[in-house]
Amino acid sequence: MDIDRKKTLRQIERDYLDDIDSIAREWLAEGQDEDWLHETIDGHRNVIYPYRARIVLVCSDNPDAYAEDFGDGTPTVEQQTYAAMMRDVREQAEHIKRYAEEHEDAEATA
Fold first, then answer.
1. How high is the pLDDT of residue 75?
2. pLDDT of residue 101
3. Cα–Cα distance measured from residue 86 to residue 23, given in angstroms and rounded to the nearest whole number
4. Which of 16, 32, 50, 92 could be cross-linked to 36 through a Cys-Cys bond (beta carbons 3.0 to 4.6 Å apart)?
5. Up-side HSE of residue 58: CA atoms within 13 Å toward CB?
6. CA dist 36 to 39, 60, 97, 107, Å?
7. Structure pTM?
8. Please, where are the H alpha helices in 4-64?
9. Which residue, 11, 27, 8, 5, is CA-closest to 88?
């Protein structure tokens, strides 16, 4: 069985980005607070399973978020993934809000 490595890696990345988008949309749609976001990410399968956590650090735009947020130290892969996912979700939520605002403005002027 031939496996297309690049295609497989793109699919893994798409799956991760879909998770981030889903969490961001739910966070915004439900008007959830920071506690909800913390609990959602802290208990997410990508954080609690080390194998998945390592994959996140490859797919995330923010693999160094832990060091940037908390300084140097010896974080676990799960702690690094938690910080990366928190930042990825926040960035995606901001992107969603900006997109909605731009389209509202466009509709208002049309």
1. 95
2. 87
3. 10
4. 32
5. 13
6. 5, 21, 19, 32
7. 0.87
8. 5-29, 34-42, 45-48, 50-59
9. 27
- Kindly compute the dihedral angle of the four CA atoms of residues 93, 97, 103, 106, in this order, to the nearest 10 degrees: -150
From CA 104, how far away is CA 69, in angstroms rounded?
34
Query: What is the 8-class DSSP label of residue 1?
Result: -
Compute the distance between CA of residue 89 and CA of residue 109 in angstroms, rounded to an integer: 30
- What integer pLDDT is reported at residue 72 of this predicted model? 78
Count of residues making up the chain: 110
Q: Which two tokens stand for residue 69?
A: 């947020």
CA distances from 79 to 53, 66, 67, 82 (A): 9, 7, 10, 5
Tens-digit pLDDT profile for the chain (110 aa)?
577 889 999 999 999 999 999 999 999 998 889 999 999 999 999 999 999 999 999 999 999 999 999 987 889 999 999 999 999 999 999 999 999 888 876 665 65
Are residues 84 and 62 in contact, defined by beta-carbon separation less than 8 angstroms? Answer: yes
Q: Are 47 and 89 in contact (CB under 8 A)?
A: no
